[in-house]
Amino acid sequence: MWQYVGRRLVLAIPTLLGASIIVFAMVHLAPGDPIAAVLPVDASKEQVEAIKKAYGFDRPLPVQYFKWLGRVVTGDLGKSIATRRAVILDVRDSLANSLVLAISSSLLAFGAGIALGLLAAFWRGRWLDKLASAVAVVGVSVPHYWAGIILIIIFSVQLNWLPAMGAASDGGIASYLRHMTLPTIALALIPLGVIARVVRSAALDILAQEFVLALRAKGLARRRVLTHVVKNAAPQIITVLGLQFGFQLGGSVLVEAVFSWPGTGYLLNLAIFQRDIPVLQGVILVLATFFVLLNLLVDVLQTLIDPRIARH
Amino acid sequence: MSTIALPNEAEGVVGAPMSYWRTVAWRLSQDRATLVAGSLLLLVVLLTVLAPWISPYDPNSGSVRLRLAPVGSPSHVLGTDEQGRDMLSRLLWGGRMTLLAGLTPVVIAFVLGTMLGVIAGYAGGITNTLVMRTMDIFYAFPAVLLAIAISGALGPGLPNTLISLSIVFIPRVVRVAESATVQVKGLEYLAAARASGAGLWQILRHHLLANVLGPVLVFATTQVSLSIILAAGLSFLGLGVTPPAAEWGLMLNTLRQSIYVNAVVPALPGLAIFVTSMAFNLVSDGLRDAMEIRA
Amino acid sequence: MTRFIGFLALAVLSLALASGAAAEGTLRIGMTAADIPYTGGQTDNGFEGFRFVGYQIYEPLINWDLSRSDKLPSLVPGLAESWDVSKSDPKKWIFKLRKNVKFHDGSAFNADAVLFTFDSIKNKQAPQFDQYGSAQISWRLSALKAVRKVDDYTVEFETPTVSSFVPYQIVYMVIVSPAQWNKVKDWRQFAEQPSGTGPFKLARFVPRERLELDANKAYWDPKRTPKVDKIVLLPMPEPTTRLAALRSGQVDWIEVPPPDSIAQLKGAGFQIVTNKYPHNWGHILRLDKEPWNNKAVRKAANYAIDRVGICKNLLNDTCVPGTGVVYKGHPWFGNPRETYEYNPAKAKELLKQAGFDGVSKRPAKAVALISTSGSGQMLPLAMNELVQKNLKDVGIDVDLQPIEWNSLTQRFRIGFTGENAGVNALNISFNFLEPFSAFGRFFHSKSVPPMSVNIMPFVNPESDKLLDEAERTFDPGKQDAILAKLHELVVDEAPWIFVVHDLNPRAMSTKVKGFVPPQSWFVDLTQVSVTK
Questions:
Q1: Model pTM greater than 0.95?
Q2: pLDDT for C369-397, tens place per residue?
Q3: Which contiguous run of DSSP H or E holds residue C409?
Q4: CB atoms closer than 10 angstroms to residue C127
Q5: A54 touching B (Cβ < 8 Å)
Q6: B152 touches chain C (CB under 8 A)
């Protein structure tokens, strides 16, 4: 098994390298001058060129790429054009906020999703199944940014119970939690739906197996059956959980835009419009690395639980 | 008409097994939920396609004096937007853009992805490694992030949106297609068919494609809802369709500023996205149940 | 189980009760800027940077008097007690500096600080040269060639030509502390622990999130020592976000509330504060190509716009009609012949005279580049669609091309060439704080790119003559009269489509007291207090 892990780790390197090329290419293909965004309209051409030179934007692209890559490997993601701070600091702060949102939203989605999925499977065909399945399909279909807006309309505008934006990092834990509530719910909806459906489907498969039917016919306690189902469905469920956590971390852009939650998505949005190339490159690369490692973790966990799974 | 081995025989039929696709069609006809969703979907598509003929007003003209009229206003049954344009007309025309932006990338991904996936799966060896590892690189990015990054680089506009979303979906389709191809490749009857002298093209057409197309088709339909949400989401962020065009995601964005004045009208475009997306999901569920695909 | 429920209930209850209550005497402001403006001295984010950072933490030698609403701010002594052009050489200006002023770090303000700051902007060889800050501001200081120390409290500025505009430019250069800079020798670090002489000092800085300023109780002017203890600045580029933040009590003051919300804000008891200020929103026209190369067509366009409709219906009275570069009542307005009231019939008549009757001859067609948002741009999409409609109604077909704000400023820089070859107009808002910003950069023949931004290009010998004369006239009253004559000429030539002047709407809770909205892009926050 360790051979498998080792092999996957080694394979991750060219993947990351490829990802870095794509990140670099995407960002530099963008039309528009990165420096012009932060300078006033009347700044002289000479000054624009001088600042460009200071950031190395006047060199040919491949040269820029290798210089960037060289620095990245040592942990230096460059300096933001807009704030002139080290990108790694911006990324670290925003990643922390996104992780908080992703984790809390995942807890909600996983808990509720698994519960709904199991309920639906065990009471298949009855109204509980229909209800749970309906909730799941709604969750999967709803555009989460729209859900966020609806939540704001109901809970913030009309009822004024919860705040509509920001993270209020100054107001203490209670305030932070209040600000986190609506974005967490909005972000959890799609994963909740996906997880519920996968769990239901996996559980049904297992319950349909002959020997399980036989066991239930013999009167085996429901709890024992449940344990059996969970253990056997675990590999599939874990894959989905991993994927959905990835979705919540990387896909939080839209929710963060609606709630102005200062995470990586918000930073990305800002950087796109400010054409802040170092920040764009840094954020996307860090997120991509995260996912490659996350996928690796999920694969390893799967093999641990069921060694038959090791892929070709 | 070639027959393909099925796990079970069609229920309720005695005698010779029905052809595959006819079985699928029969199963679909028994699934009420899918039928309802399918009809809804058809209705949505029909309404948006017919927009030029049935929309009461020009979606781009409006009188600023009538801004943000509420739902149920005398001459504007769904109200007006922040520029005084009729919401019903904007929703109808906007649907065409949203559906176009949502469906096209999936269709492109379906065609290109299946081709790539089958080639990689059938060829094996270095070709397979090359293709699959390249796909892995794109797969490393979550869909939303990749879409936004590419769109951010290319700039706003419908063509760029189509390109960026296609790039997002192709790797996923390739994975499913390759996996299905590899599975089928190993089936015994395939080896038997080759041993009996069947040509490569025949094998491909009768056995490979039929068993691969099924899962890929189902997978593609599950991605439509995501594609629609992403396309609208890109416009929502200002990276997709540009104003003053009508498109559900863009409308959601421009109306967002008005939620304090009138909470219902700004919610309508999102509702449209939601209903369409749900209809697609239910249909794809039904399709998967009918085709008994596990993927 | 009951324990668990009890714990849950307690948690929910505590969440509900806890809220981000503000300390007494703290003013929390939601800005339209997308990020905290640069705190290292010569700030960015345009005038919003000056408004909330540049002029709060730092000061220039000459200040604007922002204490009155009823007239334009005048220039008053700041870090300089007095200034005058030298009697013997009109290209030299003597500034007598204020004594007994300390920077926030405790070091003394004197002539060395002025020279140090000047070099940081203008002298590329100086170790303290701030590349970023210099790019933000040095183009505004074109009349300042060099500075010389006469003694510890006297400096002498040298200008390349005789220019009465010097005080107007000095007001943009804020003075930084050399002692503090020399401790860190790096502008980014200086930006995190800045030191100026202003009424507020930096207390806490979270990049992209918030800036906290403490009152400088040791400020040199006892009349302007801040009443409020603390100011918190939060970037909120989204209008709905700002609105939500104000209504939920997260902030006390927001810039530019969405015009639609003004009625209900008033209803909910918030104060809405507006005033005229030197802001102009319109279209800059390309004068060397059809259709705008014809003066009659330009005048026709100006008569076709329903400005009152825009201000009343779209912007809820947060703007006033603009029929010139400056607004009526401004000392530079003069008495233009053309009044550009809404007169579509007159517009059609003018067009017919020019040969564009839209029936037999081709209709007048043009392409206009607009932005989707941006500082000072107000509601660009909605407003431009109205303008487009007005023009279409008289027979001028304008095709709008919306692009992103940063792209627009960049394309504005290159003028009507290259990428903009097919473009006939640009919609960008401007300020007219002083003669160069108002007229010099647009209407003088020497201001064509790359010197400045006369991209139209507007080349008129009479205009050049008036501008040169104004720059040589040191008496403010006479200078105003010359500029008024220039304004009359510009209005008559109609090189722009004049549309509106913004009224700088702000919304604040009733707890905010003592704020006087000046006729300016800047504000004085020292007289404001926040009651409990």
A1: no
A2: 888 777 788 888 888 988 988 898 888 98
A3: helix C405-414
A4: 10
A5: no
A6: no
